[in-house]
Amino acid sequence: MSRRIALIPAAGVGARFGAECPKQYVRLVGRTVLEHTVKRLAGIPAIDLVFIVVSAQDEYIDTIYPSAALPHNIAILRCGGDTRAQTVRNGIRLAQQHYAVLDTDWLLVHDAARCCVSTESVERLIKAVQHHPVGGLLALPVADTLKQADPAQQVSRTVNRASLWQAQTPQMFRAGMLAAALDQADLDVITDESSAVEAMGLAPLLVAGDIRNLKLTSAQDALLATYFLQQDNIE
Ligand SMILES: Nc1ccn([C@@H]2O[C@H](COP(=O)(O)OP(=O)(O)OP(=O)(O)O)[C@@H](O)[C@H]2O)c(=O)n1
Ligand SMILES: C[C@](O)(CO)[C@H](O)COP(=O)(O)O
């Protein structure tokens, strides 16, 4: 029976966010961003195991997850890379070597920085993708009119948005397929797992996500994330 395993890349430095620590360790509504993300994924019954991938130099992770107190379904992999894609590739390799992850197991790769992801959206993704031959990802249809800029930051054209979606995470693929796709990809260039799979000529499924699953990129995103986290506490 294939397992469903969340893999959380959490080895970024958060340069655009500009906090004193990497953004996954910023505290919002009583916990760090990473703890919110992990709590949400580890609490979903359909997810068997959660890997957190941090950099080998990470000085924060032990303070929030002391190894002696780690729940049985959470493991920390200290093998982050210089890019998100390298972190994911390194994490999958280590998980295959030390945690008996099989090629047929499903991996749900989810940004540490998307700390408001909902159980419903992850369950929707799993339901839609578990019988799909390729895999898929949460995404949002583009809602605004899109402009392409020229070098002077003037509009060169309006882009037809009819078939455009914004990629979110989790992105769900079989471990073997994703490892093979990442082995062939330029890990300095690709920004998500789907891109690597698409480059093999395959077509991942787009599954509608929701706006609460925003990624903390710049500091102003924390305002909205705080609101969503507080709402979830009330419900
Ligand atoms: N070398 C990297 C870079 C990013 N990430 C993770 O990938 C997710 C999404 O990346 P992004 O928002 O770009 O995070 P940062 O790289 O930290 O941000 P920035 O580009 O502003 O430095 C985050 O959870 C981040 O920790 C990672 O694990 N390893
Ligand atoms: C994977 C991702 O969350 C999809 O939107 C996103 O690409 C990651 O952020 P980055 O800034 O591109 O690394």
TrEMBL record:
Any single GO BP term: isopentenyl diphosphate biosynthetic process, methylerythritol 4-phosphate pathway
InterPro entries assigned: IspD, IspD/TarI, IspD/TarI_cytidylyltransf_bact, Nucleotide-diphossugar_trans
GO terms assigned for molecular function: 2-C-methyl-D-erythritol 4-phosphate cytidylyltransferase activity
Pathway noted in the entry: Isoprenoid biosynthesis; isopentenyl diphosphate biosynthesis via DXP pathway; isopentenyl diphosphate from 1-deoxy-D-xylulose 5-phosphate: step 2/6
Site positions (Positions MEP for the nucleophilic attack): R161, K215
Keyword Glycoprotein among record annotations: no
Gene3D superfamilies per the UniProt record, alphabetical: Spore Coat Polysaccharide Biosynthesis Protein SpsA, Chain A
UniProt-annotated site: Transition state stabilizer, residues: R16, K23
Catalytic function, reaction form: 2-C-methyl-D-erythritol 4-phosphate + CTP + H(+) = 4-CDP-2-C-methyl-D-erythritol + diphosphate
Keywords: Isoprene biosynthesis, Nucleotidyltransferase, Transferase
Cleavable signal peptide: none
Enzyme Commission numbers on file: 2.7.7.60
UniProt family annotation: Belongs to the IspD/TarI cytidylyltransferase family. IspD subfamily.
Protein's job: Catalyzes the formation of 4-diphosphocytidyl-2-C-methyl-D-erythritol from CTP and 2-C-methyl-D-erythritol 4-phosphate (MEP).
Protein name: 2-C-methyl-D-erythritol 4-phosphate cytidylyltransferase
